[in-house]
Model the fold of this input.
Amino acid sequence: MTFEDWFRKDRLPHIFCAGCGNGTIINCTLAAVDQMGWKKEETVFVSGIGCSSRAPGYIMTDSLHTTHGRALAFATGVKMANKNLHVVVFTGDGDLAAIGGNHFIHACRRNIDLTVVCMNNQIYGMTGGQGSPTTPLKCLSTTTPYGCAEPPFDLCELAIAAGANYVSRWTSYHVKELEKAVLAGLQTPGFSFIEAMTQCPTAFGRRNKFRQVIDHVEYLKAHSLLKAKRDRLFEEGKEIPPDMFVVGELMRRNRPAMGVLP
Amino acid sequence: MKLAIDEIRCKGCNLCTKVCPYKIFKEGKKPNRKGIIVPELDRPERCANCRLQKLYGRRLCGVCELTCPDQAIHWIEEEPYEPHKVAIEY
Amino acid sequence: MTRTEFWQGNTACAEGALAAGCTFFGGYPITPSTEIAEHMAAKLPKKGGVFIQMEDEIASMASIIGASWTGARSMTATSGPGFSLMMENIGFAAMTETPCVVVNVQRGGPSTGQPTMGAQGDMMQCRFGSHGDYSVIALCPSSVQEMYELTAKAFNLADRYRVPVFLMADEIVGHMREKIIIPDSVEKIPRKELEKGVLPFKAGDDLIPGFATFGKGHHVHVTGLTHDERGYPCATNVNLHHNLVKRLVDKVENARHDLADFSVINPDAEEVFIAYGAPVRAVQQVLHDRPGQDIGFLQIRTVWPFPDFALARFKNARRFLVPELNFGQIAREIERHVNVPVLSIPKLGGDLHLPRELTAVLERGL
Done:
């Protein structure tokens, strides 16, 4: 069995724009789920609203496409009511960090046994490119036409501070690493958070000088700073470039978790 | 095994042309019936997975398949078996 | 063996839920419904159920919908402000046909209002609060005994009709202590499971599809988007949306005769009181004080869908008097169905109508 077998083939091709990284992240997640050897009937995919959240509709398992930002609250209900189910949550940056921010930090605090894959495209893609809580400073969007003036969220730091058991960040360029990170997340009991930076050619790239899909992917690749390198720079007392984001496994610990079968 | 691009699913983003270490995918020239310029395959027999998957018994590389956001890249069994000429580059 | 207890309304509600087999409670503390959550927190884990205190009412409602899809009988309890927060996900439950029970121990509003005083101001909100067209079931208990019985009944109705069912109690009933007779067991009608090979949102003649429980291999996609019978989103098909929403409304509205729960006293009277919830008790006192056949009384327990045909039982009615703890929300609904004057007797502030206030209205005449 490969990850291909997890798709609802009658629904493909999906609605994502040409070059959207969400499809890549679904592939990586499903490849990891496939390696776990879970049965389709005991796996549930949950999502909220947004581009990322259309993902469960293409996956051949029980799937719950819920209201905006509430995916984690629904997933908490599913997991607590039936601990035999493996629950994976797809979410986006607007879904998770803006409207669902409270559910996010509380799911981290409870350390409930979920795996959350956040497709962070740094923009509200489905509504046409409005600024989100992760839009970098000075970036253009339809609601930040003079450049984003608000400092963005670092979702991984937020998850670590709130108490998640496993936190890592990769990009849609690092497919193998992302697959391994999701696999590690699925294996970790407790709350696992994997942030996948992804390109959005239609809503973000178009307004931010990434004319081609690959320009944005190249940017993500060039601006990802490995955690080991970040630590080395830190030890050497050198400055960490402000426009770079750290990738790698940022946290793995063993806090008491909820929803784990005894 | 051989590589195949599913023209129904492909949306022509050309991400595959950037990720393949062998540069097997190259940008297409002619739009298809849906108006999408699907990438072309350049000597696909060079693909490591095509050659070695049977030997190793597992999927090798596979970056194009994982990266393709539209699930359009697959390996298909060749039937009937067609022998390839593999040009060995020294 | 039935037993007799002296319980608070909220305790009776929680016990009724436990008797009906509730196994999941997601809640958030709010006066005056907190006792239900407290009681469930103490009792549910011992019965193998799950109690979880969520971060807000939005999440509470979300969690019980999620739990319901795994096959659990789930409920939450809240009051006015929390009920407002739940509206979004109540619409989701209506759209996805998720059975769940929401207890609203109503308090004075709007906004924070009177946390410790009773009211019935959410009667219209529970019917029309979420956006779009849908239909729900709402039950109104007027005593501690009814708190117990209607809560247990709410679970059966939710599972039968696949809708959110509201128990619209109020602070007066919720915090009142009264004698209650506990039956040995309550009727439990299990949810109709989806048959293999049937599309998950394909309804039969009763307009209610079988329930595709998660974890049973149905591979169902549940979405709040307009969906076809497979459950796949299809948000731009005009006919599909029309037919889906029509079915969501019709499955409840067509069943109003089956759902109706009311009692009629003196159907030949000319002056007729109509009440639900706590004001029932004031009317009962008036009837007790003025024995005879001259005052009719209709007590409604299933307020939504509204049992309009019950009004026709009062053939000689010259006037309907509707005491409510709001400015005539249900009086207006009654007005739609009758040709005689409907007199709303509102009372806000948290006190129940005094019997003499009702008598005074009666004596004032037309």
In short: Strands of chain A lie at 43-47, 62-65, 86-92, 115-120, 123-124, 130-131, 166-171, 192-197, 224-226, 245-252. Chain A has a mean pLDDT of 94. The first strand of chain A starts at residue 43 and ends at 47.
